[in-house]
Structures are given as structure tokens and as C-alpha cells.
Amino acid sequence: MATPMDLLRSNLSRVRIPEPTNRIYKQECCVSFDTPKSEGGLFVDMNSFLAFGKEYVGWNFEKTGNPVYLHIKQTKKLVSEDRPLKKPTLLAIGTL
Length: 96
Known about the structure:
- It is built from 2 helices and 3 strands; from the N terminus they run H-E-E-H-E.
- By secondary structure, the chain is of the alpha+beta class.
- The protein has a single domain, classed as Herpes Virus-1 (2-Layer Sandwich), CATH 3.30.40.
- A hairpin with a 5-residue loop joins strand 1 (42-45) and strand 2.
- The radius of gyration is 21 Å and the shape is elongated.
- 9% of the residues are buried.
């Protein structure tokens, strides 16, 4: 069975390296309103640099044949309540 790295190496010729003039659309899906904060995150096609939501990745793959995607997902990190606050308790201006 092929490992994910072997699959990536076999499709490396389809991956483009972005140049300074390329626009990379990674803030929102180009078909729906999915963002990196959505449940499935975003998948950026590494050839066209267009982002797709989880349900549209298959559609894009069938259309273009590009199998390599960058998965971007943002999750909220919970802050524990027992952590001390790092807010300043004193404010002193012009003191030594």
C-alpha cells in the first residue's frame, strides 16, 4: 500500500510554486461561503490556488484532475480558567 508521501511524490509535477504575482484565494471557498473556520475547513488546489469547501473538493478534482490540496482549518483554542490573568495591575507613568 502506498503511503501518503509516495502519493504526493507521484503527483508533485502537478503542484505549482506560487510566485509574487500569483493570487492565492485562501480566505473563502470560490463556490460556497465556507471559510477556514468552517467545520470542514478549506482545501486549496495547489495548481490553480483556488479554495474549495469540503463538499466541493471532489467536484474540482473531477473537473481538473488535480489531486493535491492544502487543507487549512482554524479551530478555537480553549483557555483554561485556572490560568492567571496577564493584565497589568498597576499603571505608573514617569516613575523610576
